[in-house]
Amino acid sequence: MEHYLDNSATTRVCPEAAAAAMLAMTEIYGNPSSTHTKGREARQLLDKSRKQVADALGCTAQELVFTSCGSESDNWAILNGAELMRRKGMHIISSQVEHDAVRKSLDELERRGFEVTRLKPDEAGAIPVQAVMEALRPDTVLVTLMLVNNETGAVTDIGAIARAMKKAGSQALLHTDAVQAFMKLPFTVKSLGADLVSVSGHKIHAPKGIGALYIKNGVKLKPYLLGGGQENGRRAGTEAMPQIAAFGAACQAAREHLQENYERMAALRQLAIDELRRDIPELVVIGGGAPHILSISLPGWRSEVLMNYMEAQEIYVSKSSACKKGGRSHVLEAIGLAPKVIDGAIRIGLSRFTTQEDILALCAALKEARSKLAHA
Description:
Elements: E1 3-4, H1 15-26, H2 37-57, E2 64-67, H3 70-85, E3 91-95, H4 100-111, E4 115-119, H5 129-135, E5 140-144, H6 158-167, E6 173-177, H7 189-192, E7 196-200, E8 211-215, H8 230-233, H9 241-256, H10 258-279, E9 284-286, E10 293-297, H11 303-311, E11 315-316, H12 330-334, H13 339-343, E12 345-349, H14 356-374
Parallel strand pairs: 1-11, 3-4, 3-5, 5-6, 6-7
Antiparallel strand pairs: 2-8, 7-8, 9-10, 10-12
Helix pairs in contact: 1-9, 2-9, 3-4, 5-6, 10-14
């Protein structure tokens, strides 16, 4: 029996999203820019889907632009956000534990002459509010920090950072990569206080290839893709209607039991910790905060060996971000973990479909692997 526990990398598409995509592919298949009946039908579906995602974020439909993924949303917000503010300053604040979509965008801005301060995280992987305020300068024009760390599950208090920045009279735009937090933690763009928020579909049981960027009213962000006048002139390209419809449906399905799912995932995460700690005394729990990400380490064992052992039993986890190819995790290095802890680390990603049976199977396999590998 399969036990999929790599939901921080991607999720299986939920029935509601699959049905919505099929409808858009086979029945409401017109181009939303066409003026005939099939085009108008598609436009209505586009408007409906946009409202579903906007409602999940707590913003207006006009503030939401569909993108191809969270990485595109991050790139657009950071690169064009910085350029928008260039005349007011050239200083940017971020952290050492961001996703590569953010890190590499910042590298590009440095090549363009911007100065980037990368803050060190606390031991969980979150960025303290005080650290941001100490780094804030009159020429700071952009602050970009992820809401939930994709490897440790650490939660950065973006709302508190936004309030502190406002109190300080900062001119800087605030962007947050909320890909790992969206529809997992209860929040709205108002509670975050951010100007720009990136989200993605495939982390919440929609297909891959769809994301969105919240752009606060009044922020005149230049388009990232040029061409036609789609997305109110803000992003060119014929809209990916099957993915967009699925994204909307997935948001609506997730919203219906958001708090209940949060509590259930948190309980399952704690169950895993309790079960493993009971029989694996050397277990290290890394970070924490979000209910759906559990990062652990068995120092002295290689994560690849543990993963392969579990994969043979159809239990799927990861060693770090799925976007990270080779080398040690920059996130785990930044929070100061010993090399043997990093080398034995695995990431367990839960979803609203994760069951107690999945967790118990994981724990049994890890205990068995430790016993057998220890005597190998």
